[in-house]
From TrEMBL:
PANTHER family: ISOPENTENYL-DIPHOSPHATE DELTA-ISOMERASE (PTHR10885:SF0)
Pfam family, one: NUDIX
CDD domains xrefs: NUDIX_Hydrolase
The Nudix hydrolase domain, residue ranges: 28-156
Record GO terms (molecular function): hydrolase activity
Assigned keywords, A-Z: Hydrolase
Source organism superkingdom: Bacteria
UniProt-recorded name of the protein: NUDIX domain-containing protein
Amino acid sequence: MEVWDIYDKDGYKTGKVKEKGEKLNSGEYHLAMEAWIINSDSKILVQKRSNSCEILPGVWGLTTGRMISGENSIDGCIREVNEELGIKISEDEVEFMRRIFRTDLIWDLYLVRKDIDLEELVLQENEVAEAKCITVNEFKEMLEEGRLFKYPEIYEILDLVEGDFH
């Protein structure tokens, strides 16, 4: 059973842990991450979630994941990118962009600059159905068409990422 560390409203560990699926109380948060993987052509790596995924099945998005107990979000980012896509990244390739608080989640967003050979990806079948690299304009089109997971801050993050290209 997966165990998660519990954080407070300020982003500090409380010392409590809960099993995955266990309800979090008001003011309790769990740590998660999102990786924006960008290649030297300024294309963004997106992945289509498997139809068997519990959350957002069949929807395109960025690489995301929840941190297991004892893991910080950088280590979790490295682990999730490797587990879901078979891409090995190191800590010096992971750049913190922003922290977002949700109802019961703290999302740490990271930028990873790396050229990926799509033919070499090893997709985690129960999580990822497909992956591709797309331009910023294609990313925006997919958002507007509802094919890519959209959250309130995504355009702000896209602006940050896009500004980093230049």
